[in-house]
Design goal:
Pfam families: GMP_PDE_delta. It comes from Eutreptiella gymnastica. The protein is mostly beta strands and about 160 residues long. A hairpin with a 5-residue loop joins strand 1 and strand 2.
Length: about 160
């Protein structure tokens, strides 16, 4: 859980968007992400340099330390760059377990300055004690579908399959 990755440059859609979302998607880059225990500040995981990789339009895999599932809350920092202005940048995420939606989240960043690099921090609370699913059930069976929007305008989306190691 608690994961966002990157966006597709529009290749997940079979049509060209006339509303400018293809241009926005091509100018949006997720550079890196880190996750820390929100209470202790201990960094639990940090991505490699995603901006330098061809990661668009695929189901990607992420290997996250299983110890992160023991955190009461996780602080997630996402560093992203945008070539274009966005008025109301936001993310909708669906967490799927064995292809069934088990959680949905919306995160709002707001205004994005053109040609800027930003770090977006979010804190995510874990399920209460006794309600967290076991690592063996989650690992490899959990997919995060992330969709990026500027207001109500679709920008791009992607999927990441999580493996807890």
């Amino acid at each position: 859980f608690f994961f966002v990755f990157c966006c597709s440059n529009g290749s997940m859609s079979n049509s060209t968007n006339r509303d400018g979302s293809d241009e926005i998607a091509q100018g949006l880059s997720i550079n890196w992400m880190s996750m820390s225990d929100a209470y202790s500040g201990q960094e639990m995981w940090k991505s490699e340099d995603w901006a330098a990789q061809d990661i668009w339009g695929k189901e990607l895999a992420a290997r996250i330390p299983k110890e992160i599932l023991g955190c009461k809350a996780v602080s997630r920092d996402i560093n992203f760059s945008s070539k274009h202005k966005m008025e109301k940048f936001r993310v909708e995420q669906k967490v799927l377990l064995n292809d069934q939606v088990i959680e949905e989240w919306t995160f709002v960043f707001g205004f994005v300055i053109p040609n800027s690099t930003n770090t977006w921090s979010s804190a995510i609370e874990a399920a209460p004690d006794g309600e967290m699913l076991p690592t063996e059930v989650l690992s490899g069976n959990t997919v995060i579908e992330t969709t990026f929007y500027d207001g109500n305008q679709f920008v791009c989306s992607n999927r990441v399959r999580l493996y807890y190691v």
